[in-house]
Amino acid sequence: MNVLLVNPPSSFLLKSFNKISSPDIPLNLAYIAAVIEADGHFVRIIDMNVIKSYAELKERLDEAEFDVLGFTATTPIFQSCLNTIQILKKKFPRSKIILGGWHASTLPVETMGSVPEIDFIVKGEGECTIRELMKAIEMNNGFASIQGIVYRDTNLTIHENQDRPLIQNLDTLPYPARQLLPLEEYKKMGLYTFGGYYKKDLYICSIISNRGCMGKCIFCGDSVIHKGFCRNRSPENVVAEIQHMIKKYKIRITGFLDANFLSSAVHVRRICELIIAKKLKIIWVCSARVDNVSEELLRLMKRAGCIRIAYGIESGSPKILKLMRKNIRISQIRNAIAITKKVGIPVYVYFIYGMPGETLEDARMSRQLLMETKPNFVTNSIATPYPRTKLFDLMRDEWHLTDINLDSFFNTVFNMAVETPYIKKVFKVQRKILRDFYLSPFFLVDTIKKLTSIYHLKFYFTAFLCFIKFIVGL
What we know:
Elements: E1 2-7, H1 27-38, E2 42-47, H2 54-61, E3 68-72, H3 78-91, E4 96-100, H4 102-106, H5 108-114, E5 120-122, H6 127-139, E6 149-152, E7 158-160, H7 183-188, E8 203-204, E9 210-211, H8 222-226, E10 231-232, H9 235-249, E11 251-255, H10 265-277, E12 283-288, H11 295-303, E13 306-314, H12 318-324, H13 330-342, E14 347-353, H14 360-373, E15 377-382, H15 390-399, H16 406-409, H17 423-438, H18 441-449, H19 454-472
Parallel strand pairs: 1-2, 1-3, 3-4, 4-5, 8-11, 11-12, 12-13, 13-14, 14-15
Antiparallel strand pairs: 5-6, 6-7, 9-10
Helix pairs in contact: 1-6, 9-10, 10-11, 14-17
């Protein structure tokens, strides 16, 4: 069969922020494509975020008469995904529509019921499920025995099958089909935004070393798919894939998509040792918790090519951190930022404002922590209660959250999702905090000292324009 996998376009209201963000590479679709290709199907991937014109899109769609259209979507882009599904269904009226990803896994029956164009929903990890589902579609068999799907029968009745167990040995998965991704386009966009490299002549693509997170943060939907477990690939398998990326695709920059790259210090140490021993010319970024770092490990990571670490700080208020169930201390935040800067790795931190019960004093404590620790970059966001998270339950109970308009409720950047007693004041304060940080003498001086190329300068000019739009509320 001919299969088209689609990454819907970003629908963020402030699209200009995409210009200063790393490419959102749909590695999940590349994994699915690799499995389908191995079974003999013809597969193509369209990343709508890099399609420049209708003519280009039409050319891609005219390549074949696709029998199956597969889509992935998070909750913020679900409405955009729905629009894309409806457009492509008109182009391929006889095709079967499959939806997977975070949103479909979170609200599978509700999503199926509200979108008549969808024939199947794949819940959770899709590699094993899609293989069985494709075979059943091709052979026109029944679907009742396939774990991990929601489907309609001939009477249009919706059935939800039992969940599929998590894949325990991630080494059994094929490498993602990166040849189907628009690597040339990723090369052109966002290389300099990784925080440590500012030249547009290297290929870029993401990678994973583990799936899942042991954290219990109430705002995170990771547990919807990964059930609160973390599974590591073997370091040898990870590094073998890096070698494959370099040799076959000439990729020299990568980002680990792991929710917590440092979930196991032993695991990370071995990956770094293998990269160094094999003399692999790769630079990379990752995300981590502040309670998993040590100076010795950070030095090894830098030797292995790490050029930036992002930490989920979230708040400078112990009260709010406890409410979030972050299970971290302010002292750990300070220590992680300090030692990461000490070894020479740029630090990116995330803050969340607008949690239930957060006051202006809590927001000011976040500002104080930020200005004292002086990370290299910061991103602020407003707490958003995604379905099936503890935060959603809390806001539903505390603020009687009931009705959700997907198009406006989640489709925000640095904006209010739910109005709580202090949210408007906190929202103004977090804007001021962002302004104070990026206009602070220490940030401006550090930025000027580290300018290395015209691309670096261009990035900061673009970022400055986006920053001005945000500050004035455009």
